[in-house]
Amino acid sequence: MNNLINFKTMKNIIIVFTLLLATQVIAQKQLTTKEWREDLRFLQTTVHKKFPFLFKKISAQDFDAEVETFYNAIPEMEQHEVAVGFFRMIALFKYGHTRMSFSENPVPFHAIPIDFYRFPDGIYIKAAHRDYKDLVGAKVLAIAGRPIEEVVKAVYTTVPAENDMFNDAYGLDHMTIPEVLHAQGITDNLLEEIALKLEKDNKRFDYVVPANADLRVPMKYGEIRPDSDWVNGRDTTTTPYYLKHFERVYYFDYLEKDKTVYVRHSRIQNDEKEDVAVFYKRLFEFVDSNDVEKLVLDVRLNGGGNNYLNKPIITGVIANKKINQPGKFFVITGRRTFSACQNLINELDHYTNALFVGEPSSENINFYGDNRKVTLPNSKTPVYLSFAWWQDRSPWDNADYIKPHYPVQMSYQEYVTNQDPVLQSVLDFKSVNFVLNPMQYLTELYTKGEMDLVAAEAKRMANDPAYGFFDFEGEFDRVGGVLLGNDNQGALLILGTNAALFPESANAQYNYAQALRETKDFEKAKTYYNKAIAIDAESNIGKKALRILNKISEK
Fold first, then answer.
1. Quick check: helix, strand or coil at residue 23?
2. What secondary structure letter does DSSP report for 325?
3. What is the DSSP track for 497-525?
4. 334 in helix, strand or coil?
5. Is the pLDDT of residue 3 over 60?
6. E-strand spans in 316-354?
7. Which residues contact 437 (CB under 8 A, 6 or more apart)?
8. Closest CA to 348 of 334, 329, 327, 370
9. Mind giving me the DSSP string for 370-388?
10. What pairing do the DSSP bridges indicate for beta strands 250-255 and 230-232?
11. Tell me, what's the pLDDT at 432?
12. CA terminus-to-terminus distance, the chain
């Protein structure tokens, strides 16, 4: 009996001690203004001394100005507002690997158990905890009484978004967190629940979802795990190719009717059953020994990994003459194509005849990756700062992403009914002699002196929907501008072709007029200045055209 009493007493002591310890930890989270400011200065100094190369998309001066604004505002902020402020500071660098985590923060954050996803016609609740399963499939019109796009814009500055695709892939989660919504001015006070205005089955309704401390969303490759307490609206009686065999990092299937080999590769790492080199050796042997006309590499769910594993994929495609041709090798990309997978698609774009389909990637072409953990001294907040510059392309190539040749997106209705318009567009692709790089092709024709063919081919491609990915007008303006003064004949050809291809563009008419004026053909220049004015007299282009036209007429 005494032993039982002693056991109970000891158990109670442990419980009391644990509660006291928890109380102490909670109390430690209430940092003073001085402590928060010291952490901010520490972060500022660390970046300047050890990570100054991160000042690429934002200057050191602009970063310091943002820090000073935040520093001065801290005394009036609540603890969670200060914590979110640090997220804003890190997001200024706009590199996805340079980041912070809500789950590792000493200030407690909460979230509603909802997964938002942007489809072409709006943001939907793609998945939710089973307690809110009836909300799945609803289109989100407003959060906390504010229009959904206003909310997206407000929280964007807390996301280390390299581009809009990154924000769509990862940043929408920030809208589920009450602390973020308050800190970013969406709500007037910190709330324990979030009000949603939704539309489903042609009915609009309001619903309030309580937030909890569990920030985890049970996902794999961006999809809800089927063995979790969460549900999504997808019909699970059938499975599209891009969601099959999720237990594998990669797999391939032969679509015999289409004479197509489909590969889903969702992580740059070795599968425990078959490493990358062995898998792709087997894949290309299958391609060579079977009736295969197309190879599809689907990396739309691939968030990266170890880019040293990319070599067997790239060399395998290069060596395979059967597949490495325009219109035979396709790469499907999407908003989750990131990190080491960006390295993969960079090299496929550079060294192979890959035709890209789907959505742009969520990583810059050249980017800072691989981060080091820096712990702020007072709050003990971990901050991850990138240090490795991955440069697969020229140093001045700062494009936000690789754009697909064929932009294709999936609607919510297609998602839930297991349709895959992206893969289908590949299977339906019939274009013969597809030109992957129109500007390079036209330049080669120009260099050969085939001027008539340059104009004819430019017109053909500009009017072909298959080349909707290419900005003919912008590229012609750029190249024409470069040639002007060095090769006036070439400049007139390019800019004149541009004016003819885009007769409703004031900019195209104006630039051709400028070239004509530069080459002393004033009468013809007047014609095109007048065209620019007629198209848009009130724009800056129209006003400049009018001023120049008046000067010419005075002579």
1. helix
2. S
3. HHHHH-TT-HHHHHHHHHHHHHTT-HHHH
4. coil
5. no
6. 329-333
7. none
8. 329
9. EEEEEE-TTT--EEEEEEE
10. unpaired
11. 67
12. 115
Using the structure block, give the residue that is written with the tokens 């003990």.
Answer: 380
pLDDT tens digits, 152-195: 999 999 999 999 999 999 999 999 999 999 999 999 999 999 99
47, containing H or E segment: helix 33-50
Average pLDDT over the chain, rounded to an integer: 91
In the three-class reduction of DSSP (H, G, I as helix; E, B as strand; rest coil), residue 123 is classed as strand
- In the block, residue with structure tokens 């604004």: 69
Exposed (0-12), middle (13-18) or buried (19+): which is 458, by Cβ within 10 Å?
buried
Instruction: With H, G, I as helix, E, B as strand and everything else as coil, classify residue 463.
Output: coil
450 burial (CB, 10 Å; 0-12 / 13-18 / 19+) is middle
Give pLDDT tens digits for 184-233: 999 999 999 999 999 999 999 999 999 999 989 999 999 999 889 999 99
Count CB neighbours of 396 within 10 A: 6
Residue 265, token pair as written in the block: 């590769």
Largest CA distance in the chain: 115
Match 């001045």 to its residue by tokens.
396
Main-chain dihedrals φ then ψ at residue 154, nearest 5 degrees: -65, -40
Strands 329-333 and 382-390, how do they pair?
Answer: unpaired
Q: Across residues 395-411, what is the average pLDDT?
A: 89
Alpha helices per DSSP H over 172-260:
178-183
Q: How many CA atoms lie within 13 A of 141 on its CB side?
A: 11
277 contacts: CB under 8 Å, gap ≥ 6: 312
Residues pairing with 307 in the sheet: none
